[in-house]
Amino acid sequence: DAAQILNTPNRLDTILDLILTQLKRIVAFDHATVMLIHDDIIRIEAAQGLPEIRDFTGHQFTVEENRVVHTCIYNHQRVYLPNVREEPDWLQVEGLEKVHSWLAAPLLIRGECIGVLTVDGFKIDQFDPHDLEFVSTFASHSASAIENARLLTETTEALHREQKLNQIAYTISQNLETDALLESIAQQATEVVNGDIASIILIDPETTEVIDLFYHNKPENLNFDLETPTSEREEGLIWDVLDKGITILERDYSSHPKAMQEWIEVGARGGLAGPIRAGETIIGGRAVFSLDPQHT
User: Fold this and answer.
1) pTM above 0.70, yes or no
2) Dihedral-angle region of residue 236 (phi above 0 means left; psi in -120 to 50 means alpha; beta otherwise)
3) Measured between alpha carbons, how far apart are the two ends of the chain, in Å?
């Protein structure tokens, strides 16, 4: 039973593959995709069928530019195009010129469209009324499975973050050696936010002079340290945090007004920085950087 299989707790990527595998057992499609909505962007999260469709996993476009899905997203109704060549709003994608029939059903959760399930065929009018009804019903079960998988993922990630934060707290309470403490905090902070590089500085609260500096996964071509203080007060994400006393998330590090050229050159894409406090006093700052634009 497809519904029972989909309701088994699983990761989101596993559920998406199961959806298309189960769909293939009933509907004779050439390609099928699960597209999920992220704000005003639709992203192909999973695809099955002939080899060319697999290259489109991860492809995304705006809701506005793909007008054929508007009926699914806004009216919560399925769409069937027996011949896409006769549809003026059809968005022709290079590499999918063989597609002639296209069927889409909304993925609905509590009255909200979270995505679209699509199947297409190389023949004109390839899908019959039974296919249309089945895809619509199957989309309803799929939406519930996707929502459950998302909740499972969020719960797992939250638990992982809580465990890491507990580890940090335990390390701080047990460790009295500064170097080992900084190393552990930097490493665990990097893991909590799935970053690549971390830096921590400690300052003299009275003079704001840097008294200790530590890196986790420091790139070899990052050319400054405590002995060569090229970072001036007006430069760097951490100094901005120390000046303002707040946590700063910068998704595009290079666009930050205090971005340092040294970090840009080693490939920093996004940065998350926050102050380190002893009571009400700021005694330093920490920053985690991502080198992967998908993690910003």
Assistant:
1) no
2) left
3) 40
Tell me how far the alpha carbon of residue 234 is from its chain's centroid: 32
What letter does residue 71 receive in the DSSP assignment? H
User: In angstroms, rounded to a whole number, what is the distance separating the alpha carbons of residues 180 and 159?
Assistant: 25
State the alpha helices, DSSP H only, in the chain: 2-6, 12-26, 51-54, 70-75, 129-174, 178-192, 237-244, 261-265
Instruction: Check: CB of residue 201 under 8 Å from CB of residue 213.
Output: yes
List 116's β-bridge partners, or say none. Answer: 35, 106
Residue 281: how many CB atoms within 10 A of its CB? 10
Judge residue 69's burial from the number of C-beta atoms within 10 Å of its C-beta, 0-12 exposed, 13-18 middle, 19 or more buried: buried
Q: What is the pLDDT of residues 244-288, one digit of tens each?
A: 888 888 888 888 888 888 888 888 888 888 888 877 888 888 888
